[in-house]
Amino acid sequence: MKSFIITENDTNQRLDKFLKKLFPLATRGLLYKLNRTNKIKVNKKREDNEYKLQLWDVVNIFLNDFDFEKLAKENSERPLSLNEAGLRGAIDKKDIVFEDGFLLVVNKKAWVNVHPGDHKTKEISLIDQVQDYLWDKLNSLTFKPSLAHRIDRDTSWIVIIAKKKDILTRLVEDFKNHKNIKKYYLTVVSGILDKKEWIINKKLERIIDAKNENKVKVSNEWQSAITYYKVLDEFKFEKESFSLLEVEIKTGRMHQIRVHLSDLWHPVIWDKTYWNKSLNYYLSKELGISRQFLHASKIEFMHYGTGKRITLEARLKDDMKEFLEKVRKI
Fold it and tell me: Which one of 3.40.50.300, 3.30.2350.10, 3.40.50.11540, 1.10.10.60 gives the CATH number of domain 182-300?
């Protein structure tokens, strides 16, 4: 017999779902049979598969060691860390913006996938890095730290990872409903804007059948989208001019910042979808730019672990920082 004490991150889930996570190689039919034949007990009695596990419940599993390890094979051994496996991509400590017992906040590098298999690549994803970094700090049987929100691969971002299941649930809901969240970005756009502060209130439509990428366009009959920007600096390089903006989005539509600024004829520089490709080539050749200059720099949100609002800022990535230093000296 093996016994498991239900801790915070394993509570409020159905017994059958808990067992499926514990025994990834078992079919649901087998798990139901084990419960029906009294091989599974919760607090020394049989519970229905729909029973919601509570804090400090004790789950007893009456299997011999061979059968237990056979069903739990995928969970039976600690996987090699990224370093042990000789893989590159472990989290750089300087990219950790904040960490406590409830949250890990990371300043994601550009060109890093957030989940395995995104964009059909085999690169080490951000969530792989996070779970590798946090492995020895976790004691949950079935919960793994998870991202509270999605992010673009080619954008540097401040990313919130929840260590607790209840915290994750509440943050995901806040991001989904744009509640209790304020997101600020720094971006470099083409040209000098006439209005130094402005609210862009234009609806956006996603073009479902777009090739290469699911593109978005301004539309009068689709989802509302509100973007506020403020010009922080202006500079020129040869015949080109640029502006550094702080942007706050009041909604979270796909490509919202990029499409709204492009519609003003001041697109984010090196945006391969909503900007002039010949200018991309020029900036790449003359200034070494190789990705769109959009950086999630600051976020305000409710820290549900402490019950207080928190504001966090992430430093500029080296490529944006070096570009700004260079053009400001010209």
Answer: 3.30.2350.10
- Computed on alpha carbons and rounded to an integer, the radius of gyration of the chain in Å comes to 24
C-alpha distance from residue 102 to each of 88, 180, 315 (Å): 26, 17, 22
Each residue's pLDDT, cut to its tens digit, for the chain (330 residues) gives: 889 999 888 898 999 999 998 898 889 899 999 999 999 999 999 999 999 999 999 999 999 888 888 888 655 444 444 454 444 556 788 889 999 999 999 998 877 777 665 545 566 788 888 888 887 666 678 888 888 987 777 777 789 999 998 999 999 999 988 889 999 999 999 999 999 999 999 999 988 776 666 688 898 878 899 999 999 999 988 888 999 999 999 888 888 999 999 999 999 998 888 887 788 888 888 888 888 899 989 999 999 999 999 999 999 988 899 889 888 865
What ranges do the domains of the chain cover?
2-75, 93-177, 182-300
- Distance CA(228)–CA(230), nearest Å, equals 7
Is the torsion defined by CA of 51, 52, 56, 58 positive or negative? positive
Which among 23, 33, 36, 2 has a CA at the least distance from the CA of 70?
A: 23
Spatial strand order of the sheet with 240-249 comes to 197-201, 226-237, 240-249, 182-190, 294-303, 308-313
β strands within 40-196, DSSP E: 40-42, 58-61, 96-99, 103-108, 146-147, 157-162, 182-190
CB 130, CB 145: distance < 8 Å: yes
- What is the 8-class DSSP label of residue 112? -
Q: In CATH terms, are 93-177 and 182-300 the same topology?
A: yes
Question: What is 93-177's CATH number?
Answer: 3.30.2350.10
Please tell me the distance from the alpha carbon of residue 59 to that of residue 42, in angstroms, as a whole number. 5
Please give the angle made by the CA atoms of 186, 191 and 196, to the nearest 5 degrees.
Answer: 60
Which CATH code is given to the segment(s) 2-75?
3.10.290.10
